[in-house]
Specification:
This protein has 108 residues and is mainly β. 6% of the residues lie in helices and 40% in strands. The chain has a single domain, classed as Beta Barrel (Cathepsin D, subunit A, domain 1). This is Peptidase A1 domain-containing protein.
């Protein structure tokens, strides 16, 4: 991850496990959209490692300026049947590696 202003972002050229996919993607959200390309890399969450395919954004136009948002990205907790281009959402790719099929988020 690299810090730019107030945002951290992924730089595939700094990853030794990155694999180029290059498929262009466009995703529309309620408040805007994003366009970019698909990439593949190893994701590590705690002691869980999995190779995942994800979108790298190159443009994030929308109602809200992306640089003023208080988050760095969207992690891929969407449903499999709504994924763009048939790409498995990140969470689905690690589910079989969890000790139990339980997931929670703590917001402070």
């Amino acid at each position: 991850m690299t810090l730019s202003g107030t945002h951290r972002y992924y730089k595939h050229n700094k990853s030794s496990t990155y694999k180029e996919n290059g498929t262009n993607v466009q995703i529309n959200y309620a408040t805007g959209s994003m366009s970019g390309f698909l990439s593949e890399d190893v994701l590590k969450l705690g002691n869980i490692c999995s190779t995942v395919t994800f979108a790298e954004a190159t443009s994030v136009p929308g109602v809200i300026d992306a640089f003023s948002l208080k988050f760095d990205g969207i992690f891929g907790l969407g449903l499999e049947d709504t994924s763009v281009g048939g790409v498995m959402p990140v969470f689905y790719s690690i589910m079989d590696k969890l000790p139990q099929p339980i997931f929670s988020v703590y917001l402070n």
